[in-house]
C-alpha cells in the first residue's frame, strides 16, 4: 500500500443553476490575458450539447485518454511517445481555434470617439486574434447554452449520437420532450493523467503532496501533446507564450487553506472540496480493468478509508501529516464519493481516474409519476419513476458511469428517498426508517447526507 | 496485473527510445519521482515555475463593496487591488448566520457581477465630461457674446433653427470633451433658464431603484426636490409594480426574503425564472427540495428553473390567470364547499374581506355587485361611517362593524379600534343558511376583450332596503362553484369547458391539462393545510409585465390567501420584480425629497410622463372603452388614454407634471394663490398641461438621467422617445395609427424635440449617454461610498472605494453637489426667492387622501359632477417658498424641518430630535450660509450616516418609538419586536465591516426579531395590525366605480390584448412564406442585468455576442431561418435586427428577445430603414390602463412608486423575417 493524498472536488449537478459565475471568476483570476483569450480553465456546458471545445467527448476524433489493449495493458489512445514524435509538428488530433471559438472583442472606442455622423455609433465586433472584423459571430465557448440552437447542434453531441440508437424516441429535440442539465468542468487532476504521460518534455507533473497536475512553465516546449492526450480537453495552448496552461486547482489558494476560486464563488453552493487518500499502487491496475462498467468500482477501491487505523498508520509512514489525515477524515468529498456513494466520476471509460466527481441531476420525477395517475409524493412511486425522468438515465450513465444505468439509478434513488424521508419531517410527521432502509441507509445517515447536501455550510463544503 | 503491465504499449515497444530517455533524464535532473512505468510524474521540488501563478494570485488589498445594479441582488463582493489597479472580484462569504439548521447567505453573486471590474478600465468607460460638439460651439459663441451663462442658454433656446440643429445631432457621435466646470455651468444655466421661463416642473429627474445605491439616488433627487423639479417614478414605469399589491394589500410590495423559501413546503415559480433572475438566491430553492419541498414551475418555455421542478406547466403566454382561477375553483369547491377546512376558514374570516357585505345593484342587465355595505348604510351616525365596512356576526346573525376598517384608522377614537381584534364576533362567510338567494350577472372576457356575461346565484339578505351578499358568496359565483339551491348557470364538473372557472375551461385557454391543474391545486391546498400556510408562489415578470397583470396576480394571491399562506414564514407571494427594498426607507426618503427643507416634493408617475411627452398618446388607438366590461356604465365613452390621464389629474388621483399651462412660480405670486388657481381652473383661464401636452408651454425642457440607461433599456416606445422627446432620427414608421381624443387637444403638427437638455451621468457609454447633450463621468461601484439593501436578504451593505475615481470621474453625490452649488450661484442672480404653487395628488396613508372620495365614486368637477375642493375632489395645492440662491448650501446640510415635523413613513411620524443632535456630532456642523449650525451632508459618507440615523431599520431607538406610536393606534403589543435592538444604532462603518442585519421596524410589515427570517404581513397576522385597506383586511373585492367599469371588482381572467384589432398588427400566425407574426416577449437576460453587463466582453462571450431573438424550430422553419441567421423584427413601433437562436425550448408562436440588449455593441443597420437597429423596447410602446389611474379612495390612493400606470410591454406582437445575411455597421 502506497498512501497518497489527493485534493479532489465533487460537484452536485442537481444543484447547479448554470449561472457560469465559476467560469467568470476563474477567468478573471487566471486567464484574462493575451494568449489565453479563448481559455476557460473552468467552463460550464449545457447538456445535451457539443461543449467546449466542440465535441470534446468524441475520442474517436481527438484520441484523448487511455485505451486498453487486447493484452490488458493501457496505452495512450493517441499512440505512444514514438507515434507522437512522428507527428510532433503536425498533430492531426489537435482542436483548432474554431473548435474552441474565435475570441472576439468590439471596437468600443467608437462609442466615445465617433465623430459627428448620421447614425448612432456602435462597437463593431472584431477578432481578438487578428483584429479583423467579425461581423457575424459564429461560435463561442457557451454557444449552446440553455439548449440554444439545440435542434441543429445537440444531435452532434457525441453522447446523443451514441445512445440515440438505444433509447430512440426519448432523445428528441422537441418542446414537450425538452430536458437539460449543466456540466461545469475543470481539469480532473486525474490519478492516471494522460496529459502527463503525453508530454515529450517532461514538463507536466502531479504534485506529490496534493496530486494537483501542473505544467512547468519553464520546461514546457509547446509540443501540445498534452492537449491531445487529455480526453477532457482541459489543457490549453497559450499562443503568446507558446506553452501549455491548465487549471491549477488554484494551488496558491489551496496551499494557504482557501478554497479554489470556482468553489468559493459557486452561487449554487454545489462544489465540495476535500482530501482523498488512495493507494497509488492500485491505480494502474484499476485503470486497466477489462469491463468499462468496472472502472467506477475499481476507482472506488483505490480510495482508502481515512478512519481505518491501518490506513492512518501507513499514511503517517508515507509522510502525511496529522493535518492531512484529519482533513481526509473530515472530507465532504470522501463522504459523497465513498460513504453515501452519490458522486460519480466523469467519463471513467477514459481510464484516467479523474478526481472531479459529480452528483447526477434529479430532474422532474413527480411529473413522470403523476402522468401515470399515481401519487407523485409517495416514496415508493418515486423509485419506480426514476427511469421515466426527463433526463434519460442512459444519458447520465453515458456521462458518468461508462453507460452503466444501474449505478445512476441507485444514486437517484438515494436522492429521491432523501426528499421523501425529509418531507415527512418537514410536515411534522413521524420519521419513516423504511424509506432510508430502502436505499441502504439508516435514517441518521439520511439526515447527515441531507445536511451535507442541503444545509452545506461553508465549513462543511470545503 | 501489475502496474508495470499496464503501461503504454507503444512504450513497451520502444523502451530506450529517445523520448523515453528524455523523460528519464528529466526525472533525474528535476528531483521528481517518475513512476516506474513512466506513466506519471510526481514532483516535490524544482517547481520554481509555480511562482508564475502565485504572483498572479497576489494582491495588495481586498476591499468590500457591492454592485449598484438594478437586479435586487445587493451582494457583497471582495474587490482585489494590486498596484493601485482593480484586478478582479470574488463574492464575500462573511454574512451573519441565519441559523444552524438552514443554508446560509453565502456566497451571493452572479456571473454578471463577477465581471464588473471589466468596466473600470474598459474602452467604453466615460473618462471625462462630454458635451455635444455642435451645442458646445453654440453655447460658447453665445456666452462670448452675452457674457452670462443663463443668457447664453436662453439665446440658443430662443433660436428655433439652432435649437433644432443640435437636437437633430443627438445620438450621432460628435461628443467632445469639456471640463467639469464648463459642463456643470451649461447644465446649471439650462436649469435656471427653464425654471425662470417655464417653471420648475418642466425639469424632471429619472433615477430608479434607490435601494441599489441610496446615497447616489438621494443626491440627485435632493437637487431636484430643492429646485421643485419632479422625480419620475420607476417601479410602475418598469411594469414591475404589481398593481394587485395596493389593490389587495394596500401595500406597495412586501415579500419574504429568499432565506424564507427554505421554510416553504410547496413552491411554485410562476413566471419567475429564479436561476437567471434571482441567481444568488436560487440555491435556497434547490436545497429546500431536499427537505421535501415540492417545486412546480409555470412557464410557457422550458425555462432554466424547470430543471429543478417536479412539475412543469406551460400555459400559453399571458393566460396564467385562467390557470390560477381554475386552481381557485378546485380549492373553493374541495376545501370550502364540499368540506370545511378549519385552518382556512379561520384565516379568511380574520384576515380577508370575504365575510364583508356587498350591496347588489339593479341594472339593465340584472343585479350586479355594487359597493361595500358601510356603517352609514346601517344608519349609524358614527365618525367616518362611510368608511366602516360591515359583516354579519355568525353568533347573533346581525350586521356588525368590526374593528380595523379605514374609518377606524383615521378616527379620533378614545380606545384603539384600528385592529383585527374580533372579540366575540364570528364573521359569517356565507349567507346561504339564511335561505334567500338572487341571480347576479358577472362579466367574462375569455373570448374577446369585451367579453360576455354569466348569470349565477348568490344567497342574499336585505339591509337598509338593499339586497346584500358576502364577498365569499360573490367569489363562489365568480369562480363557478355551485351550491345546492342557488339559481344561475353552473359547471357540470371540472371538465366543463363552457363555464368560466373550471379546470376544463382553463385547459381550453391555456393548454394545461385540466387534470394537472386540479391535481396541483389540490396538492397546494393539502400542503397548506398540513403545513399551516407554508405554500409559496414566486411570481415574476413573466406574469407581471402584462397589460392585465393585476388580474393575473389577483388570481394568484387568491390561492395564497384562501389557503392561509400570507403572513406566514414559508408562505405567501414572492414578487421579486424590480422590488429592491430600500430598508432604511425613512432616512433615504427624507434626503431624497429634501423634506428637511421644504414639503411637499413633486413626484411624478413615470409612465404617464413618458406616454405624454414622447408623443405615444398620439398613436394610441386603444380606447378606454375597449377595456370596458359588458356590464359597464359608459364612463369611458369616447376617451383615449390621454383623456383618462387628464381625468385622473382633474380628480386629483394621479400627479401630473408639468401641472398647469402656466409657470407655477407665476401662480405662486398672488395673495391667495390656492384660491386664485381654483377659481381660474373653474372659469377656464387656467388649464392643465396634460390637456394640451403638445403646446410648447407644456413641454418638459430638461431631463436628467443618472444610475439609469433609460434610452437603451426601459424606454418602452423607444423610437417615439427619439422622434418626439429628443427630436432626432428614429425608425418610427410614418404611417402608424393615430388616436382621436375626446377632451385632450390633438394638434395636427407632430412635435419633434421637446427637450432643451438631456443630461446623463454614467461610467459607461450607453444609448442614453450617446443621445445626451451633456455626459458626466460617474464613479463606479468600486470607487465611491454608498449603501444598498434588498428584499432578498435582511442585510445592509456598504459601497467602499477600492480606488479613487480614475480619470475625471466623480461620485454622483459629488457631481450633484457641484451642480447644486453652480446652480445656486446662477440662480441667486436670475431667480432669487420665489413662491411655487405645488399641486400634489391625494396621498396614500393620509386621512385626507384615503378618505377623499367616499364609496369610490368617480366625480369630475369639470363636468359639473361636484365642486372643485382642493385635497378632496381635486389636487391638494400648497405654496412652497424656494430660495434658489441657497440650493447649494441646502444640499449639503440637513435642514430644520425634520426637527419641527419629524419624518414620516406609512403615517408613522418619528421624532428625530436626538438623531439630529447625534448626526451633528458625527458629521460635524455647517458654519455659515443657509445651513448654518445644521449637520453636514457634504459627502456621500455623511449622507449615508444620515440615512442610517433617520430610519427605524437601522436605528433601534426609532424602531421602538415607531412601534410605540403604532401601539397607541392599534392597541396591541408590538414594541417588543424592536426592543431587542433599542440601543442599536447601525453606523456606516458597521456596514463596511460586515453585512448588518436590519432591525424590525414599523416601516415594514414583517419581523426579523430574534433572527427570524423575514416574511411580509406577520405584524398583521400575529399582532392584529390591519392592512392599509378599506376593510383593513386583504381584499378579494374592490368596489371603485372604474374597477366595476372594467369588470375587475373580483379576480377575473383577461386574455392578452388583441393587437390586431386594437392596433392593426397582423394576426398571430404565418403571414407569408417569408415572414411570421409572433408574440413578442422580453424576459430578463441571462447575460445582463437590463442593459448593464450586456456590453461587457465576458458576458458577450458567454452569450452569443450581440442582439439575439429566441424562436421555436417551427417558426424558424416557416420562414427559412437557421440557428444564428440574421433576422429582422418589425412592427408599427420600430425595427430590430438580431440573430436567431433556434431552440426547441421555445413554444411555437412566441419569440423572446431578452430584455435590454443594447444597440451600442455589434448591432448593424437594418434592412428596412438603413439605420441602426433598435433595442428590445423599439418594438414596444406604453399602453395605459385606466384603472391604474384611480386615486383618492382607501388603498387606491396614490403614493410614489406605490400606485400608478404601468409601462407594461408583454402583449406586443411583431413580424419576423430572415434578412440579408451580409450586415453593415
From TrEMBL, chain B:
Domain 4Fe-4S Mo/W bis-MGD-type, residue spans: 60-124
Q: Could you tell me the superkingdom of the organism this chain comes from? A: Bacteria
Q: Which InterPro entries match?
A: Asp_de-COase-like_dom_sf, MopB_CT_Nitrate-R-NarG-like, MoPterin_dinucl-bd_dom, Mopterin_OxRdtase, Mopterin_OxRdtase_4Fe-4S_dom, Mopterin_OxRdtase_prok_CS, MopterinOxRdtase_cofactor_BS, NarG
Gene3D superfamilies on file: 3.40.50.12440
User: Per its Swiss-Prot or TrEMBL entry, what cofactor is needed?
Assistant: [4Fe-4S] cluster; Mo-bis(molybdopterin guanine dinucleotide)
| Alphabetical list of PROSITE patterns matching this protein | 4FE4S_MOW_BIS_MGD, MOLYBDOPTERIN_PROK_1, MOLYBDOPTERIN_PROK_2
EC number(s) from the headed UniProt entry: 1.7.5.1
What is the enzyme's main class? oxidoreductase
Please list every transmembrane segment annotated in the UniProt record, as residue ranges: none
The UniProt keywords, alphabetically, are: 4Fe-4S, Cell membrane, Electron transport, Iron, Iron-sulfur, Membrane, Metal-binding, Molybdenum, Nitrate assimilation, Oxidoreductase, Transport
Bilayer topology reads: Peripheral membrane protein
Task: List locations, semicolon-separated.
Answer: Cell membrane
Reaction(s) catalysed by this chain, per the record, are: nitrate + a quinol = a quinone + nitrite + H2O
Q: Which PANTHER family match?
A: RESPIRATORY NITRATE REDUCTASE, RESPIRATORY NITRATE REDUCTASE 2 ALPHA CHAIN
Family statement: Belongs to the prokaryotic molybdopterin-containing oxidoreductase family.
Protein known as:
nitrate reductase (quinone)
